[in-house]
Design a protein that fits this description.
Elements: E1 2-6, E2 24-28, H1 35-50, H2 61-70, H3 91-107, H4 125-135, H5 139-142, H6 145-157, E3 165-166, E4 173-174, H7 175-187, H8 198-208, H9 217-226, H10 257-272, H11 280-288, H12 299-302, H13 317-334, H14 340-360, H15 368-381, H16 386-393, E5 399-402, E6 405-408, H17 415-429, H18 436-448, H19 483-497, H20 501-504, H21 510-522, H22 561-577, H23 583-599, H24 615-628, H25 637-648, H26 661-665, H27 678-690, H28 693-696, H29 699-711, E7 725-727, E8 731-733, H30 738-762
Amino acid sequence: MWKLRVSQGDDPWIKSTNNHIGRQYWEFDPNHGTLEEKAEVEKARDEFHKNRFQVKHSSDLLVRLQFAKEKPCGMKPGVATKVGDEEEISEEAVASTIRRALSFFSTLQAEDGHWPSDYGGPLFLLPGLVIGLYVTGALSTILSAEHQQEMCRYVYNHQNGDGGWGLHIEGHSIMFCTALSYITLRLLGEGADGGAGAMDKARKWILDRGGITCIPSWGKMWLSVLGVYDWKGNNPLPPEIWLLPYFIPMHPGRMWCHSRMVYLPMSYLYGKRFVGPINSMVLSLRRELYSQPYHQIDWNQARSQCAKEDLYYPHPLIQDILWGFFHKLDESLLMQWPFSKLRRNALTTVMQHIHYEDENTQYICLGPVNKVLNMVCCWVEDPNSMAYKCHLSRIKDYLWMAEDGMKMQGYNGSQLWDVALTVQAVLASNFVDEYGLMLKKAHDFIKNTQVRSNSSGNLNLWYRHISKGGWSFSTPDNGWPVSDCTAEGLKVVVRLSQMPSEMVGEAIAVDHLFDAVNLILSLQNSNGGFASYELTRSYAWLEMINPTEIFGDVMIDYQYVECTSAAIQGLRSFSKLYAVHRREEIEACIAKAVNFIEGIQHPDGSWHGSWGVCYTYGTWFGIKGLLAGGRTYQNSSSIRRACDFLLSKQLHSGGWGESYRSSQDKVYTNLEGNKSHLVSTGWAMLALIGAGQAERDPTPLHRAAMLLINSQMEDGDFPQQEIIGVFNSNCMISYSAYRNIFPIWALAEYLNHVILLSRSHSL
């Protein structure tokens, strides 16, 4: 039976900056669990499989089942509170719902203070891992038979009815993930006719659309590494670009860090033209997945082929001309002496950057794609290297188990982010006396996960921003602080520092607060906005050479309403307590950030959210940022228009329910059937309550609160609904703790700023 391990690191190849606090991984123990517990797991798996075409998202039941046994909820069993359509919502009903929710959610908190949860969703991550392990010969060494079985379960469970796989678990079928998922199953031991017809359907889907010459560029790269596709069919990824002077706008050091860190190892593999072992499996895949014999394929033509289902960002003509030029240059010059010396120098430089990234992230790396690519590069450089062995030991940090199988997450977790939001939800409830232990553990976690030093060496040489004082999205071992994570972390530790230490633990050191403020101030761009990890280093027109086909907004680190709003809120919380420290800088920063948020508001009153779905999420951040910056409903037309926008999207059910298609199509779109979503509803409520909706007309808030109350399950949990996170416009990702955090937070604000406000007015 599978068991989640937390904050452990008993592997000699693993190092940690904070004694592994926040680390989470799954292990299989054949002796773990009773027959009844194993039967519960099998029941959950069977239910998911049976309903997989209707409910695409797992409910994260395995961690819930484990924690229910280890730390059962102290709440007395009973029927969840329900409110009738014509019934007035009472203080008792709201308070009871919040208490039940907090009592349940407290059982999901790990001893180190964080809430482990599923951060999966994208379907292109696991195939990269399987291919990377396969070509380096470590597949069966690292992935046990049980791992491989659960990975197969996951891939099969998320196959669409037409035989293909989407970019994410709710997406329409595309060539990229269909081809990679098919190959993953084959490498994991599934036959070409396996899966009770599933493999046949997948292969037919691929061949009906021209075969895998039509896979997008990232797929072409992975298949070239595997030996199922020829490197000649790739657009150039020359490592020499890393030798260019930094002032050139398209220098990779100016790119968004996620793109930079992915194309770094890609350029190494391209420059080496690395191909894994050509064996019977590879030769069989060459026969299975092409619509013509492999030796007859026109690879130059294949370079520009991409299935129409995958084309989210089609190449403009200028890009095709550019790749054509570099293709001829690379083939005719850079591979030949004396220019081959330049290639060797470039490859050496690239590997130096790869090692720097690995060592400064404890081999976790920025994200799952560059982690696997870096691992392969380290093996290509030296199969017996310590670097490769360190990479292998960190693979399980990215794997997550749920009833739908084993997946690869979009990060090594969302630990810090979820903790920071949860603390704010608990504090909003005013039930702090009852949940002090929960807060104390969370407080310790946040203090223990602040990044306490910059990356090593000359930061400019490695194109890195300062990191001391920041918080990463997950753990400090990840090594990449984020602007909004740092701001939310700062906001929370400032609030907790004002509470009794016997309740929530000792306050964070003041100089640690100053470090966080310093990092936030350093991340503001000249236009007032905040990007995610770094300053915006180049120009939006670089998006013209976005080579991915499947993602949008990948070339530079754009400024976001979410990051800018979080920065305002964090700095304002700090300045209320430390009014003198860098006062002028903080006030100037907030003023510029407020102007930025107002300047990017859409004509309909909304803001586009880039990390959550979508206009509801962005508008919550937009309103909260303006409020923290001193704007009010009365003096700000931006807040008034934003409130009007949210109210116009409220559904007949009383809730809000925005589809991921809003992010993809950049047009507000309701969920199918105008279904409500509890997380969207929570965001809208928080925004409206903050803007004083209760004083104008509380009816929309009553309707929304009724939906949240009536949606609570008997154990205090809330149901998992559609996917709610997003990145790069077109790919969705799971935030499985949101189903608990935002109903709690919204109802807590509703209790204190609507119900109790109404009572005080009546008195």
